[in-house]
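Pasting as-is:
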Amino acid sequence: MPNWPFPTSTSRNQTASSAPESFDISCCCGQQIVGERQVQPQIAECSLCRERFLILPTNPYPAPLPAGTSRRKKKSKRANGETGISAAGLALMWKTWGRPIVVWPMTLGLAGVHKVARGGRQLGNRIVAIGKVIRAQFTLLRIVVSLIVTLIGLTVYWQVRESKLEEAMVLANAAYDRGMEALEKKDTLAALAEFEDARDAMNLLKRNDMQAHHVRQYANELSVATRLGTSSLFDVLTEGDREQKVGGGQSWNDRFTRQFKGEWLVLELKGPAIVSSGGPTSQTVVFPSVFMGKPVALELPQTIVAQVPTIGDEISLIVAVQWEECRYDDQPTPRWVVRFNPENAFLWVNFVTYEATGYVTDEFQPVDSLRQVLTQQAKWVGIESN
């Protein structure tokens, strides 16, 4: 048996040491420490944090034989259903996948937390600095000076306001008297200027007495009398009929908007009236008429209807209105529809201002009948007519 080929320990050590072994260690700071093992133990130091690690020497034992070559027949681990993943494989998987999955989110999260905390500290410091600047401005002396200036300003404002109110009290009565004198002299423009001054003064004083109602009514009526359009209702319907036949309905609507819409018109209406079926706040009065054989529906806005207590079979009205619409409809039956601006329409009540319009003639109705209509409308409005 001395000649049998048994391997000795020396030969095994020589065989094991012939293959170099490397090491790869991850430091806690994230630095990788790599190198080759030696026959003797060695100390490896991290170049970043100076952490020291003990490196074991090379393995003095031979590498294990491949599966199936051992003299003792052992069942393969894979045959027993085990995965067969070695420690080196687990280490490689941790290094490649596990560590980045764990470390990167933690690193990013910590960086975000630090950034938010740093931004919060900066914002807090700015707020504190602004507060210090503001606080430095409000010294006791400055506060006292500001109060004194404010008190002086309020005093001046109050004195100016009281002066304007006293001036308005004098101006309201004086302008009213001068306006009535101008009306007696048939000076419409001078009367308009005086009544507008009186109206502004009474609006400043917030007066709602009878004289204030008179002044506002005079100012409205004289303003309309000096700004009346040159075309009557008959003239506008005549122009509309001609334009509608030549260019069509849209052509007339465009021309009406350019030429007539917004102009003031004074209407003397007499005859039967029809109240619309709308609600109390949307009722209108329609005066049916005929123009060149075609029906005309003349609608008065709700602002006029609200001042008329009753609408009977026969009614007479004198109103000031602004043109809003004059349209020819084919459906359901051919007719003219005339509408006016509901915001500015009002009942006329004063005969002396109505004379300034030039409409006082005996063609429509006698002067006595005209005065009766104006007196009746003055009662509806709540003032006395002149």
